[in-house]
Write a structure and sequence with these properties.
The protein contains 2 helices and 5 strands. The chain is of the alpha+beta class and about 80 residues long.
Amino acid sequence: MVELCQQYKFDFICLQETIKDSYTRRELDRFSRGDDFFWDWIPPRGHSGGMLMGASSESVLIMNSDQGVFFHSLVVKSLADDFI
């Protein structure tokens, strides 16, 4: 996955079933190619689950982040045209 992220310039990254409790700045920078990203995640429950979401701060403004046991959502506003 890191190779794909480094090959392409994604504005959004969402990974599920990550099985990770937390991430280091270095790990997140590898996904975002060092670009400025908003990152948020849900830790796994036991040996399954976990979700990581990231959005480019150059493309969108994060209006709201919401998460529950089985969902994670971001409300974003496009910096190019103010579309929410």
